Amino acid sequence: MLHYQTIPVTAFQQNCSIVWCDETMKAAIIDPGGDLDMLLDAVQKLGVTLEQIWLTHAHIDHAGGTAELSQQLGLPIIGPHPGDQFWIDGLPLQGQRFGLPHAESFTPTRWLHDGDTVSIGHSTLQVRHCPGHTPGHVVFHSPEIQRAFVGDVLFAGSIGRTDFPQGNHEQLIASITQRLWPMGDDTVFIPGHGPESTFGRERKTNPFVGGT
Length: 212
What we know:
Elements: E1 2-9, E2 14-21, E3 26-30, H1 36-46, E4 49-54, H2 60-63, H3 66-73, E5 77-78, H4 85-89, H5 91-98, E6 117-120, E7 123-129, E8 138-142, E9 147-151, E10 154-155, E11 158-159, H6 169-180, E12 188-191, E13 197-198, H7 199-205
Parallel strand pairs: 3-4, 4-5, 9-12
Antiparallel strand pairs: 1-2, 2-3, 6-7, 7-8, 8-9, 10-11, 12-13
């Protein structure tokens, strides 16, 4: 079965998640935005073997530590969707703008597309392309444990910003209502920032997408 531990990183308190298969103890890390020493310490304490990096999108608080971690451990970089290539190319500049440590650009080992899957150990997660916050944003869904790692598409009580380059509010709402909601009201989602919630709760109470 799939397990996960979420660790907030960087000044933006971005939720980086370590996910692992409890049969093989093989692990992937979702959105290693920074604070790599802290993340690697958590990996060691969990006793798992880190084998892959999965990215929801390429904003620096989510992807800033990716190149360094990949180079340090020889890990493949999986995702995001090719629509975020320009964000990856701009990672060094993003670091300067936000006063974060220098981040290198990189080339993903594998780009992701809607309907793809990713696997770690004996656990497989479904990939949905959910543009709007960024054009290449993807979400990782585990029906096995009714969890979705949604990056900055949806938050508890809010939704992702769409005022960045190539953000699109209409696309974001469509991504939430057409690609997240069908995962089921009982599905718990892990957002890019802040506490977990369920799709059912957000459908009822979220001021941006409530009642959809």
